[in-house]
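Section 5: illustrative case.
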């Protein structure tokens, strides 16, 4: 049995999945299995995203994560569509928190608390071109695109997982934001290289990084080399403490190319498992100063 087949079988019967779609099952065995799988999935996500595991473990864990994450994303969007009207992104964002509270599975989106800070930054900077690395199910793309004021303002999101990219497009369309947000499928490295050709735009004003943690620094350096960033481009990066991205944090903190501030967050309204794994986190806000020769 493949990982996908195993997960299909589990998600079709587990109480965790049934809870996510509003169905209740009274089965002690299923609840125990669901809880154990939730614990395993949470630990796998934490270890893989943080890069704190060896190549052998990653080879085993990554297929499991890749198969699991799109299912949670699809369930989230299904929940949103069942609990709010189309064309209302603010209600859709609130519905996500309802889904998070109702499901036993990890939902690795930026979340309401950090999302409010993202709102403030987008409103303050008033960018025309936003680049997002990592869409997941479209939460942050919706969050940012709904606040764009400039006529040509648009969010371009790069998502590696094709299933997550499709779900993100579905949510964006449901929120009637397809003219303000677009999702490209593929690796961030490829998306950065092809950005000008795909979008017809020569520069980005705002960058939000929230994809694979071991790619943060390399993709930031790709952005620098591409010439897409200009002096004053704002680069926001999530998960500085949990799972943690120490090489990226050190770079943007010490490099003369950036003026960086670290914004810590403490989360109290969580299950014990999520609180243990993700209670404390931080985002960086870095203002690009340009290369030395600029």
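Designed sequence:
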């Amino acid at each position: 049995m493949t990982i996908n087949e195993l997960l299909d079988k589990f998600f079709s019967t587990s109480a965790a999945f049934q809870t996510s779609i509003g169905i209740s099952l009274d089965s002690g065995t299923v609840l125990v299995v669901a809880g154990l799988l939730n614990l395993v999935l949470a630990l796998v996500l934490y270890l893989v995203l943080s890069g704190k595991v060896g190549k052998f473990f990653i080879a085993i864990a990554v297929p499991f994560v890749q198969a699991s994450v799109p299912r949670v994303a699809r369930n989230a969007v299904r929940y949103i569509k069942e609990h709010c009207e189309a064309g209302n992104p603010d209600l859709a964002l609130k519905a996500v928190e309802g889904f998070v509270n109702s499901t036993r599975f990890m939902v690795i989106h930026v979340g309401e608390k950090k999302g409010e800070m993202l709102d403030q930054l987008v409103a303050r900077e008033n960018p025309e071109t936003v680049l997002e690395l990592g869409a997941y199910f479209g939460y942050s793309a919706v969050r940012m695109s709904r606040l764009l004021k400039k006529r040509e303002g648009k969010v371009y999101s790069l998502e590696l997982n094709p299933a997550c990219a499709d779900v993100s497009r579905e949510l964006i369309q449901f929120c009637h934001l397809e003219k303000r947000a677009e999702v490209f499928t593929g690796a961030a490295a490829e998306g950065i290289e092809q950005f000008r050709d795909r979008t017809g735009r020569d520069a980005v004003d705002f960058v939000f990084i929230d994809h694979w943690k071991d790619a943060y620094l390399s993709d930031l350096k790709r952005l620098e080399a591409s010439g897409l960033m200009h002096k004053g481009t704002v680069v926001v990066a999530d998960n500085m403490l949990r799972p943690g991205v120490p090489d990226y944090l050190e770079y943007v903190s010490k490099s003369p190319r950036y003026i960086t501030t670290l914004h810590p967050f403490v989360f109290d309204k969580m299950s014990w498992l999520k609180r243990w794994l993700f209670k404390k986190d931080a985002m960086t806000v870095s203002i690009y100063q340009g290369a030395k020769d600029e």
